[in-house]
Design brief:
- The complex is a heterodimer.
- The longest helix of chain A has 25 residues, at about 55-80.
- Chain A contains 7 helices and 2 strands; from the N terminus they run αααααββαα.
- A two-stranded antiparallel ribbon of chain A has the order 1-2.
- In chain A, α2 packs antiparallel against α3 and α3 packs antiparallel against α4 (about 55-80).
- Chain A starts with a helix and ends in a 9-residue tail after the last helix.
- Chain A is an all-alpha fold.
- Chain A is globular, with a radius of gyration of 22 Å.
- Chain B is mainly α.
- Chain B has 3 helices and no strands.
- In chain B, α1 runs antiparallel to α2 (about 30-55).
- Chain B is elongated.
- The N and C termini of chain B lie far apart (about 55 Å).
- Classes of the chains: A mainly alpha, B mainly alpha.
């Protein structure tokens, strides 16, 4: 029982990480884009849980709202607009590449694992900065907001311009080709 | 306390699956989903290192990444709509001509 209490965070992490990895694997192998989108939704929600375990509560909420709420709805809209019923008859994978994929993926994973291993067993640092502003104990949201609006205000404003450009670009791309009558 | 390398290994698995999916899949919608997986893996890395170093900056940059991911999804799906209107398919093998 003591062991369970001491390692509860690890057990929850393994549970969530398992869901995330299985969901990602399903995105990789499912033929239907709808099924892949729902598997991706599972992955996003599990990753939001992992964020909570890493003391990033605000980002977990943002992940659920933006990814699971916004981006997935966009994907589902696109899938609905595209007629997917013609897709499953076609092969879904690039057959010529398939023999190379597994060794290359394992080599990439092994290389990254070697890089990760060096981090290994260094102790986790002082977590108080994640929930405090200038030494005063607040919440994670306030700490993130303080850093975002004090130190990183200019990138924040640039991101708003990027989003504006993306909105205009999406409208232009999705517009029907009309004749000159509207011009 | 969860060690940092647990997060890094999770991020590594998601990143590898995303890269493999981007290379292997033919469906443009699924390729975009794999791109989202890669961005998510980057977010996990940022948060894990921010936690290890006790630095709040590690939680600020994922907000920027999520914004860029939203912009990328909007543009990508606009491209999908335009592609379907132009070619009638989302199969990347059949999209092999530059001029419309």
């Amino acid at each position: 029982m003591d062991w369970l209490i001491a390692h509860f965070a690890e057990l929850v992490f393994f549970y969530l990480a398992g869901i995330a990895v299985i969901g990602a694997g399903c995105v990789l192998v499912f033929r239907s884009p709808i099924n892949a989108a729902l598997a991706l939704l599972c992955t996003f929600l599990a990753v939001a849980g992992v964020f909570v375990l890493a003391h990033a509560e605000l980002l977990a909420a943002v992940q659920v709202l933006v990814y699971a709420g916004g981006i997935m709805v966009l994907f589902l809209f696109a899938i609905m607009l595209v007629n997917v019923r013609v897709l499953p008859e076609q092969p879904q994978f690039l057959r010529k590449l398939t023999p190379f994929v597994v060794p290359v993926a394992l080599a990439l994973a092994g290389l990254l694992l070697v890089a990760v291993w060096g981090i290994g067993h260094r102790p986790v640092g002082d977590l108080s900065a994640l929930t405090s502003v200038e030494g005063v104990l607040t919440g994670n949201t306030e700490a993130v907001s303080w850093s975002l609006f004090m130190q990183y205000l200019l990138p924040f404003e640039v991101v708003s311009i990027v989003l504006l450009v993306a909105i205009i670009g999406a409208i232009v791309l999705g517009r029907k080709e009309t004749s000159e009558e509207g011009a | 306390m969860i060690p940092t390398h647990y997060f890094l290994v999770l991020s590594l698995i998601l990143f590898t699956i995303g890269v493999v999916g981007m290379v292997v899949r033919r469906n443009f919608i699924t390729v975009l989903m794999c791109l989202e997986l890669i961005l998510n893996a980057a977010n996990i890395n940022f948060i894990a290192f921010g936690r290890q170093l006790g630095d709040i900056t590690g939680q600020v940059f994922p907000i920027f990444i999520i914004s860029i991911a939203a912009a990328e999804a909007a543009i990508g799906l606009g491209i999908i709509i335009a592609l379907v209107r132009l070619k009638g398919t989302v199969n990347l093998d059949q999209v092999n001509v530059m001029e419309g």
